[in-house]
Amino acid sequence: MNGDAPAIRARGLTRRFGERVAVDHVDLSVPRRHVYGFLGPNGSGKSTTIRMLCGLLTPSEGEIEVLGLPIPAEAEALRRRIGYMTQKFSLFDDLGVRENLEFMAEVQSLPPARARRRVDELLAEYRFADRQRQLAGTLSGGQKQRLALACAVIHQPELLFLDEPTSAVDPESRRDFWEKLFELADAGTTLLVSTHYMDEAERCHRLAILDRGRLVADGTPAELTAGLAGRTLLVAAADARRAQQAIAAVAGVASVAQIGTSLRVLLEAGTADAASRIAAALARANQPAGVEPVPASLEDVFVAATRRGLAERAA
Amino acid sequence: MNLRRLWAVVLKELRQMRRDRITLAMIVAVPVMQLVLFGYAINLNLRGLAAGIADQAGTAGSRALVLDLLATGVVAPVAEARTPAELVERLRRGEISIGIAVPPDFERRKADGSEAVQVMVDGSDTSVQAAAAQLAQMPLATVVGLGQAPLASTPPPRPVSVIAFNNPERRSAVNIVPGLIGVILTMTMVLFTGVAIVRERERGNMELLIATPLSRSELMLGKVLPYVAIGFLQTTVILALGTWLFAVPIRGSLLDVYLAAGLLILANLTLGLLISTRARSQFQAMQMTFFVFLPSILLSGFMFPFSGMPRIAQWLSEVLPLTHFLRLVRGVMLRGATIGELWPDVLALAAFTTVMMATAILRFQKRLD
Known about the structure:
The complex is a heterodimer. By secondary structure, chain A is of the alpha/beta class. Chain A folds into two domains: 8-218, Rossmann fold (3-Layer(aba) Sandwich), CATH 3.40.50.300; 230-294, 2-Layer Sandwich (Alpha-Beta Plaits), CATH 3.30.70.100. Chain A contains eleven helices and 14 strands. Chain A has helices at 46-53, 75-79, 97-107, 112-125, 141-152, 171-186, 198-203, 221-226, 240-248, 274-284, 298-314; strands spanning 8-17, 20-30, 35-39, 61-66, 69-71, 82-85, 159-163, 190-195, 206-211, 214-219, 232-237, 253-259, 262-267, 289-293. In chain A, the strands form three sheets. In chain A, strands 6-7-8-3-9-10 form a six-stranded mixed beta sheet, with helices on both faces. In chain A, helix 3 (97-107) crosses helix 4 (112-125) and helix 3 runs parallel beside helix 5. Chain A is elongated, with a radius of gyration of 23 Å. Chain A starts with 7 loop residues before the first strand and ends with a helix. Chain B is of the alpha/beta class. Chain B has two domains: 3-38 and 172-363, no CATH class; 49-165, abc type-2 transporter like fold, CATH 3.40.1710. Chain B is 63% helix and 8% strand. Chain B is built from 16 helices and five strands. Chain B has a five-stranded mixed beta sheet with strand order 2-1-3-4-5, sandwiched between helices.
């Protein structure tokens, strides 16, 4: 098998639930040894896409190839080579930490000696050595996610799917969790992580932005933010609320968000003179303020990519 | 089928069971409670019992007597026999529930007022005994059409004597306890596995499990096997208490009793699994369990006699595992029959299990859609 071929390739991936289209003609290419992010609001089709990629859901349309295997036809062969961490904690609450790991090791058919070694290794590495007998149900949110990750990687999968792994975890545990993800990527694992946190998306090598089932942007975080060059402005106004109203009326302004005492303005594509028109509008409204261009953030990318959807939903 | 993966599921189930106090309590407390509660008599009248007739007298009087016995509707003739011994053999094989023997010297016995007719009863079924008791109440005067009693002041003689084979003292516990094994196994086994798959789905474990190499049959069998052991444990509890508290006899071989129990356990567990693959929540699984449990109690012959049921109810009850188990366990424990002699019921239970297991595995998909 070609080591440079993408870990995941999908074309025209679509899933309908009755009338509702959960995933709408998504094309994906996830390179190996990358941490690939899925960014999108709730209900944007992240989980559905991940489930189709691991062969748990049958696509209504489209083609999938994961680790060179056509899915869902070869889903059973794929299951030995992937790890999957579900959105909801899916280990057994009434089994101990060690028992959960042992169960997963056996289910993944690790030979007994290797299973024992691997369980001990993971207990140490994921800092559960002193909690081996504690029931999984009594662990904290962060600990549960750590245990779920340990269980998902027990058979050292080539590809790991993580569906919003940190949605119920405090910031410190999140940082800690991401350390682990990068360790795995360094060791050669490909990771596909869905999230709705911007800071997490920024850490990914590449990411795809999903909105209402459609892939609206993809690339490295740098590529994505570079695509918005010249379209982000920072406005420092005395009365941010009034200034916001004045700016929102200017043609070519895509969105205005208040950040502390200043305003972050996102412009439509191809509106070069917008900065001067904003300044004029502010002057007319008797709200003199400094307007200066700033580098785009991933949040700007996200807003720009999903703006149409948000506007339609608000209507 | 990978044995290590299968064992992993079995071990996981056992570990979870050990931490689940309610389930643990159910395993032992339910049999004990039921045994005590049902240890009281349930007596019912009935009609249409399968009867065998051996009329050795062959006189006009004896024929009239037999016809009158049949006219009560309590018995329905299914077999003719030449000797009372033949009736006994048919009783033991379970072909008839009642044997009516008219001795060769019927006319002489009738004349001198001694017992003129013998009714033999399958004592392994209480309700049959109750029916036979009714027959015994028939005054011979009316039966043979003599018109008047010899003396108004003396009570009429009891010309028909009833012998309850297999349960001479007619203690209801003797009949209840073997059946209770079946009732308890039906209730607990279907319930345990009925919630087994749904519970994992509700708790979110299923999505993880189906994303692993674990196969459908490994998962299904792994969930069933621990409960087989539990089922045998319950059987043992009931048997031990039954013999100790109620002196219930085990006339056949103990191994045959366990074989019959094993067949019922498997049938019920696979039925539970099928329920579990259909139900959307644990609550729904419980509701479905009751759809099975109630007909089992009512139609299997545990509470109401099988022979007294309308044809359609009899067909229905043939589909219930408990019906076949009751025939097996009563035959083995009370009549001393061997399980080989009762092969049609063994076959029925085995077929039921096979169909249920296959359907459950086929219905369960390692997919979320």
